[in-house]
Each structure stands twice: as structure tokens, then as C-alpha cells.
Amino acid sequence: MGGKAIENSLGWVFFDTDVYTLLMRLAINLFVLTVVIRYLYYPKTKRKDYLFTYYVIGVITFFICFSLKKLDIDTGMGLGLFAIFGIIRYRTNTVEIKEMTYLFLVIGLSVINSLASNNISLLEVIIVNGVMILLTAGLEYLWLLKHETRKTIVYERIDLIKPESYDEMMADLVARTGLNINRFEVGKINFLRDVAQVMIYYYESDQSFSDYSAQGDSSSSYD
Fold this sequence. Notes:
Blueprint: E1 6-7, E2 13-15, H1 18-45, H2 48-69, H3 75-85, H4 97-115, H5 122-143, E3 148-155, H6 166-177, E4 181-190, E5 195-203, E6 219-222
Parallel strand pairs: 3-6
Antiparallel strand pairs: 1-2, 3-5, 4-5
Helix pairs in contact: 1-2, 2-4, 2-5, 4-5
């Protein structure tokens, strides 16, 4: 462990020069994550729930790997850590992805805090926990203040799917669903049945129907 270390009464090293390495690599990681998630992924999909997930998982994974790199972890312990994270199933239909992301965050911070020792300074542990708390709070209450939900419907007025009829189709969707729709996308088109799959996007906070906020990625039919 490089640099002069100051030990506190708890048996932890309060500071070492690896803190500078942590901050530098964290800055690089956040920059790369922002480019990939915010400027490559998000403009194409507009999925704010996954944006939250990618940021939190990317940063907590970085912290876990940085922490484990400084510890002497044997094979059994390493496999045990993989087993802990193996309980998370992001394809489940009973728990939404944001709740699963919070579960991943809680487990990750618990692993880091439990494995902290003289090889990881107290200042590094404080930085790890502080950054994750600030990142999560910022994403929840500042950047992602409005949660955009999507719903797939089967739409039979196939004459309105033309780009020049966008406003008319938007008005029809709003009138028939009762939702304050933010935008929509036309998916698969079946000319034999004269129907099309339409993905509508709306903000949960703008709706007064509890059943629409239960599942953000469900499928409905308006024939």
C-alpha cells in the first residue's frame, strides 16, 4: 500500500494514496458511462428506468471491483460473491427493474462495507458510500424527476399510422386511452388484420389511473 498511512482507533487506515487512483478512475468511468448511456443509448430509446439501472450498476460494479482488487480474496470467497449477485433476476415479472436495481445497490454496498479492512482506507469507503448515495439521489430527484412509462397496445386504425397523420393519431390515442401521452412509436404492422402494435409513452405522475402504473411494460388492446 503506497504512501504514508494514518491508522485510526478502529483498525482502519484513514488515508492512503490509492484515494487519488480511486477518484481518477471513477471520473473516467463516469465520463464513459455518460457518453454510452446518456448520449448513445438514451436518445434512441428514451427509457429512463434503464438509464437509472445502467448508471447505478455501472458505478457499484466499479466500486466492488476496485475494492476487491485491494483484498486477498480466495476462490471460495469469490464464488460466494458471484452467488450473492446471482439471486438477482432482472427478467422477473413480479419485481420492477428499479426495485431490483436498489436490491443490487444494497447488496453491493453491504459487500464493500463488510470487506473493508486495513487494505482499504476509511476515506475510500466513505467516498464509495457517499458517491453511491449522491448518485442515486441525483438520478431519482433531479435528473429523473418524471418517470416515463411505456405500454404496448394493438391499434386498428391503420390509416393513421402514416407520418403525416401523427397529430391526428396522437389525439385519437389520448381520447381512447385517457392517458396524457408524451409520445408514441409504431411497431409491427399486420396488413392482413389491419392492425399495428403501437408503443405509447407517458409520465406516471401525470396520470390518475393506478392500474396504468402497476406495470410499466405491459400490453393492452384497443380494437
